[in-house]
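Protein: Glutaredoxin domain-containing protein
Species: Micromonospora inaquosa
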Amino acid sequence: MLRRWMLAILMVVCGVLVAAAQLTAGLPVVGGVELLVFLVFALLLSPWAFPRPVSAAEAQRASAVDGRPIVYWRPGCRYCLQLRFSLGRLARRAHWVDIWRDPAAAAAVRAVAGGNETVPTVVLGDRAVVNPDRAWFREQLRSS
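Structure follows.
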């Protein structure tokens, strides 16, 4: 579980250290702004930037019932973050599975990505797309 939060924790620690250095240098406003920037990065790199993750088994069951796609992702993945924010509210129309939280999800991604844990990986029905085009995926979510 700590692995999922490692980058976010690192950003917070760096932000506090930079802000403390600025504060001791007599620049509290600069330190405060820098701390705020680091906290924003920490939020973006944390699991909180994504919809509530579900297990791979739960996502597969739900997708079979409602036909919504499954998105396999991991915290700190720049491409996952780009996909997530390009979708906006449409992101809630997919089932999000954190591969660092669920070993079965990581195995499912390795099965379709040539043995690699390449994310984001999107599964639509019986079709899997590794690192999908964001515009294409947005259209798939709109039409579902």
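Remarks: The first helix runs from residue 2 to 24.
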